[in-house]
Design goal:
The complex is a heterodimer of chains A (398) and B (239).
Chain A lengths: L4 H11 L1 H37 L5 E5 L11 E2 L1 H6 L5 E16 L2 E10 L10 E4 L9 E5 H5 L7 E4 L3 E9 L9 E5 H11 L9 E2 L1 E6 L5 H22 L11 E5 H6 L4 H33 L1 H9 L4 H33 L10 H18 L1 H9 L4 H7 L1
Helix pairs in contact in A: 1-10, 2-8, 2-10, 2-11, 8-11, 8-12, 9-13, 10-11, 10-12
Chain B lengths: L11 E12 L6 E12 L2 E6 L6 H8 L7 E6 L2 E2 L5 H11 E4 L11 H12 L3 H14 L15 H13 L5 E5 L7 H18 L2 E5 L3 H6 L2 E6 L2 E6 L4
Parallel strand pairs in B: 3-8, 3-9, 6-7, 7-8
Antiparallel strand pairs in B: 1-2, 1-4, 4-5, 9-10
Helix pairs in contact in B: 3-4, 3-5, 5-6
Classes of the chains: A alpha+beta (398), B alpha/beta (239).
Chain lengths: 398, 239
Amino acid sequence: MIRSGVDLGLAELRRTLGRLWSSTAALTVLVTLTLTLAGLADALERDSTGVLRSLDADLVVFNEEARLQLLRSRVPAPLGGSLAFVDGVQRTGTVGLLPSSLSSESGRERVTVVGYTARTPAEPTNVVEGRVPLDGEPGIAAADVHLRDRGIALGDTVTLAGDRDVEIVGFVEDTRFLQQPTVWVPHDLWSRVRASAFPEAGWSETLVGAIVVRLSPGADREQVAATIEAELADLDQDIIDRMDSDDAVEGIDVDVVPMTAALDAIPGVDVQRSTFSVIVALAVAVVGMVMGLLFALLVAERRPVLSTLRAIGAPPRMLVVMLLTQVVALWAVATTGGTLATFALAQVVPEAMPLALRPIVVATIAVALLAASAVGATAALRRVVRLDPATVMQEDTE
Amino acid sequence: MSDYLDDGPARTIVRAEGCTKVFGDGHASVTAVADADLTIRGGELLALVGPSGSGKSTLLSMLGALLTPTDGRVRIEDVDVSTLDERRRTELRARRIGFVFQSAGLVPFLTAEENVATVGAFAGLPRAVARTSSRELLEQLGMADRADHLPEALSGGERQRVAIARALLVDPPVLLADEPTAHLDADRGQQVIELIASAVHDGGRAGLVVTHDPRIAAHADRVVHIADGRLDVMVPPAP
């Protein structure tokens, strides 16, 4: 029984399925393309930024010369302790990153070795199996689950660069850095691996990469960052005097930035994100245009019927709802089909192509596609609203 | 006041006074209907005849609240249609005017019963009433066994019968038909004419049929000629 525009719209779709099949198939292909691009962009970004996102921290302190680059940043470890007394700071920790390699029975992998202070904001939060090493625990490490997928198991002994054997005691998830899996070790081991990799730099247990800061609830991020920069400027000579290192410290003028800025500063992330955003936006716009064209044609084709409905008393609102119902129905079918196709595609693409679909990505793209479809169909909707019911006579006579 | 404003003993349902419709502006303007006066009483069927382009459909559109007169006024019962905005004219069409078009104008993706019952939704009829009434009407018009068919599965005559049922669903006081037999053969055309005449005469409705078909004129109470937009000659009903 037809009672509303929704009923009318669904009745037409139900009884003219064959006519819309090719349009729906074309839209599904476009949605698949859009979701594939969005999934790829998301996975690439996450595989670049996992190491920082896995920390429960709000601010990152780099030495100024490093220009927010984790691999270049070097700060004296004692700085972390000194920051604990700054107003608004709840806890601090230190991390250091080192591009390296790992050998195991499964073969050789390029990895990023991460040195960190345990039980601080520098400790990775997403442990999925086993545990992470505590400070000073010798010869053990936690690894990214990607390495588990490559055949490394809990309890296996792997060799880091410089012939450092470590036992894997846990796995952490979503902690990759610049597409490479990470291996998490205490700072002293990280320093030794670093000294092996860069013998010219010497060994220094007190030099780490960056300090991560967790703020107290309610603390003002910008204010705390400014305070830290000012405090460290005053502590400059004192800290240098306490360093037990032959390394040439470049100075401890620091940049204190929010975690989001630190993520954006990871090489390639910003460019990659904006490039993919433009491509995904174009794909979404194409879906909107196709939807608009489809409904413009449908309205032109259905004009006699729509005029008749207007003539016999159908309010324009009901016809608009009828059309919107069809837009939403086509969007729903194409988005569902496209999502399933993209999930299937993600299962078969080569491992080197980091295609993954998170629900939030699917939801965001689905909403964007719905909005684009509605905007695309606006011209058709406007035609329906402006339809002159008197044309039913002309069309009837033609 | 012309002869066409004929207030007889029955209630006047449709009244057009000085109705004029001009399309376009300035030198390009065309007067489709000029100064037309017309009344149709309850239970009266009027046939409007005239050559192509004479203004028949334009006059029907103004009487059916599809077009607003450029000058003059149209009243349906107690409502001055000429002063209504688009929303109220739509409501008026849904509740007080039944239309039968030349090519039936059924919605191709709705069954015969749905085509009829849908008008109930426009007019705000309760769902159950619309369903019962549409079934009853289809049965009265001999279409009960075709109620679940889509228009494409119906013959031309069957489609027009469904269109008549649709026009009568809300029991409107006015029934307007535009060349309802144009696409039908003689037998089916005759059936449709009789159904329309019966709906008007038995239902006490005001009926106007635009036609070239002399058989309709034979069923009409009055025949009004229109030429060059002017109501011209009133022909007495056929014996």
